[in-house]
Amino acid sequence: MNEISPIVAAPVSRSGLLRQAIEGPDLAFLMEAHNGLSAKIVEEAGFGGIWASGLTISASLGLRDSNEASWTQVLEVLEYMADASSLPILVDGDTGYGNFNNVRRLVKKLGERGIAGVCIEDKLFPKTNSFLGEEQPLADIHEFAGRIKAGKDAQANDDFVLVARVEALISSRPMEEALRRAEAYHAAGADAILIHSKKADAKEIFEFCRRWGNRAPVVIVPTKYYGTPTELFREAGISTVIWANHLLRSSITAMRETARRIHDDQSLMEVEGRVATVTDIFGIVGNDELEEAEKRYLPETPRPRAVVLAASAGDLGELTRDKPKCMVDVRGQSLLQRLVTTFADSGVRDVTVVRGYAKDAVALKGIKTADNDRYAETGELYSLAQAGAQVEGALSGDLVVAYGDVLFRNYILDSLLSSKADVVLAVDSRTEGRGKVRDMVAADHGFSGNYLDDDPALLSRMGAAVDGATGEWMGLARFSETGAQWLREEIAALEAEGALEQADLPMLFTRLAAKHPVRVKYFQGHWMDVDTLSDVAAARNFT
Ligand code: SPV
Ligand code: MG
C-alpha cells in the first residue's frame, strides 16, 4: 500500500498574493502608498495590496513625476515600504526607465527587494504624468513589447506580476489602437493590462472592457472618473482598481491645516487632540516589538530607584501651613520637583515619595507614593519601611534614599550610583560650625584633600554628637542589591526589637556600619538642605 503523505501548503509569496488578487474572481483594490509609514497605514486599513505610485513617491520627495528621482532612489523607498508592511506591492515602474535592458535590471532588483510586481507604461523616458498635456508621444508598439518580454524573462519568481499600461486613450488615440496595443503586450507576456483614461466618466473604460473580453485581467485607475459607482467596475469584469494617490493628497490637506493653525496661533492648543498622538506613532512603528526584543537580547541592567522621605511637617511657618516642606516653591518649582528632575537626569526614574503631613499636597506626575499616616509620632526609618511595605520592590537595589528637603548637584548622585560599594553615603567633609547637626559622620579617616587619595573611607558612627566628626551626611545614600538586602534585614531587626517606630537614619547607618562596610564619599559643598526660611532663600540661589 502506498503511504499517503500529508499535503503541506507552501507559504504564498507576496507575488503569489498579488497574482491571486489580480487573477481572482473578485474585484481587488490596491491603495496608494509612498513611504514606509503610508505602507503601514494601507495595511492597517485592511487593504490586500499596495500601489507604489510614481507620482506620489516623487511628490513626497518634493519632486515632479518626470523621472526626476532616479530609479535606484525609488528602489530605496520601495525597500522601506516592503519592510514596513507585509502586503504585496505593485510598483509603478513608469516607462521602465529606458529600453528593454533597463526593464530587465529593474525587474531583477525589484524581485530582490520583495516587490510583488511592476507596471510599465508604453511611453518614453523621461515620462510625463498622464494628466499633464495632450497627445503625449507613445513608445513604438514592438519596442514596448520587447520591454515586456525582457521583464518577464528577468523575473526570478514565477508569480512576479508584470502589468502593461496602455496610454493610447490618454494620448487621444482611437480605441482600436488601445486594443491593438493591449493585444501585443499580452502576447509579449504581460500578466494584466492597465487601461488608463483621463475622462471624467468611464465610458471608454467600459467600451475597452467590452471589446477586450477579459483576454487578460484589466486594471484601472479611476482618479478622474471617481464618480463611477464601484459596482459598475465589478459588472464590467474589471480585475483590479487602483486608488492611486489619495493618501498623499489627504496628508497634504492635513499637513497644511496643521501648519497654518500653528503658524497663526503660535500655539499648539487648537491642534493637540486633532492630530495623531506621539503614542500612536510609537504604536505604528512597532515600539512594543523593540521592547520585547530588548528583554531577549540586552543584558539586564539594574534600574536604579529612589525613595524620598517627605513625611514630616517641617517648620517653615506660613510656607508649610498647608503643605510639607518638599512642596515649598523654589523659583517656580517645588523642592520635590527639583529633586525628581535631578534623579531623572541621572537615570533614576522610579521614585517613591513617602508622604505624611498634608499628604494631598504632594502631587507630582510620574512618582509613586507611600503614606506614613503616623508621621507625627514615628521617625524616618518607619517612613522608609512604609515605602517597602506599600510599594512593591521599593526597597530593593539599586536604591537611592534621600531626604525630601535636600538639593544637590548631579555629579554627587552620579558618583554614588557608580560606586562599587554596597552602601555608600554622600558626606560633606566641611564640618566647621556644623556641630549641632544631627547627621554628623565619623569615619575611619577624613577627607585628605588629595585627589590621588582614593582610599575608601568607612563609616564608624553617625549621629548628633559623634566624637571626631569627619563630615556631615547630606541626606543622600545609595544601596546596591546586597546593600538593600542589609537595609531590609536591619528594618526587620529593629521591628523585632520594637525600635522601628522611633528609629532615625543615623541610627540605621550606625547599626549597619557595625555589621557591614558602609562607605563614605566625601564632597565639598554643592548641596544644601532646607531647614529654615533663610535656607529657602539660599535654595533660590542654588538652583
Ligand atoms: C501614479 O500614481 O503615479 C500613476 C497613476 O501612474 S497616474 O498618476 O494616474 O498616472
Ligand atoms: Mg505614475
Features:
single chain; 543 residues; alpha/beta; 8-stranded parallel beta barrel; 5-stranded mixed beta barrel; 21 strands; binds sulfopyruvate; binds magnesium ion
User: How big is the Rg?
Assistant: 37 Å
Strand content: 15-25%
Side-by-side strand order of the widest sheet: 1-2-3-4-5-6-7-8
Total strand count, please? Answer: 21
Give the averaged pLDDT, no decimals: 92
N- and C-termini, Cα separation: 89 Å
Molecular structure report:
- The strands form four sheets. This protein has an eight-stranded parallel β-barrel with strand order 1-2-3-4-5-6-7-8, surrounded by nine helices. A five-stranded mixed barrel has the order 16-19-17-18-20.
- It has 18 helices and 21 strands.
- It is elongated and about 110 Å long.
- Helix 7 packs across helix 8.
- Helices cover 37% and strands 18% of the residues.
- By secondary structure, the chain is an alpha/beta fold.
Task: Reconstruct the topology from this structure.
Layout: H1 14-23, E1 28-33, H2 36-45, E2 50-52, H3 54-60, H4 71-84, E3 89-92, H5 100-112, E4 117-121, H6 141-154, E5 161-166, H7 175-187, E6 192-195, H8 203-212, E7 218-220, H9 230-235, E8 240-243, H10 246-265, H11 278-284, H12 287-297, E9 305-310, E10 329-330, E11 333-334, H13 335-345, E12 350-355, E13 368-371, H14 380-390, E14 399-403, E15 406-408, H15 410-417, E16 423-428, E17 440-443, E18 457-463, E19 471-479, H16 481-496, H17 505-515, E20 519-523, E21 527-529, H18 533-542
Helix pairs in contact: 2-4, 5-6, 6-7, 7-8
Bound molecules: sulfopyruvate (SPV) and magnesium ion.
